[in-house]
Amino acid sequence: xxxxxxxxxxxxxxxxxxxxxxxxIIYYLLKFLIGTRGWQILLGLFSLxxxxxxxxxxxxxxxxxxxxxxxxxxxxLVVVIFQPELRRALAKIGEGGIFSSLFLSKKKVIDEVIRAxxxxxxxxxxxxxxxxxxxxxxxxxxxxxKINADVNLELIITIFIPQTPLHDGAxxxxxxxxxxxxxFLPLTIxxxxxxxxxxxxxAAIGISEETDAVxxxxxxxxxxxxxxxxxxxxxxxxxxxxxxxxxxxxxLYNKNFSILxxxxxxxGK
Length: 269
Known about the structure:
Elements: H1 2-9, H2 13-33, H3 37-57, H4 61-72, H5 74-81, H6 83-122, E1 127-131, E2 145-150, H7 153-160, E3 170-174, E4 177-183, H8 199-210, E5 214-218, E6 225-229, E7 232-234, H9 239-249, H10 259-267
Helix pairs in contact: 6-7, 6-9
């Protein structure tokens, strides 16, 4: 116990930064591998590691000798086995690094949502799309249909086409994924809200009042696009206005950014 307290007392800010960097690298490595052939291989290697520990604990001499010799050429095996994944990872880093890829991922989500919203608005097809931010929306996904799919134009349009099983309710976007669909959100009880707005708009305002979520609404009556944030509804937005608001509220840039930075962002679209 005293040894642990002594270690904690001797931790410096450099150690904290070191641990955070290692944790970040491991997190993005696992995130990069999940769903790929490399992830299955990693699970297989982990199973071999468990067997090796078992052999050491129970003093299985032959099995321990085999694994000791395998680990001796472990780095070479990792390079050979994970060659495709390493090539992809290095290519992504060369394109702009981890943080750049995160930026581009969020930007792609915004682009796909705007294209889908514009398509739906032109045809007066109602839609409600909620972006989770810092407050977890787990309490609002009970009864929803779990999707966990990449955000893309075709999927969003398909979900909201009338008479399909998922078109009622909202979709929730979490960590650049469509997490859930057919979610029914709390309606605002604000008595000063325009009486002419429909249930989707009231649900969008309601979720933005109870959480820090950003809710996009497409009206099926007027074919207009609105955005609810903090209980306030920005109505009748065009594609450029919508892009500016989503980019600001979802953290791509904010009002303190210079005009030049915004122009650079828009040129990268």
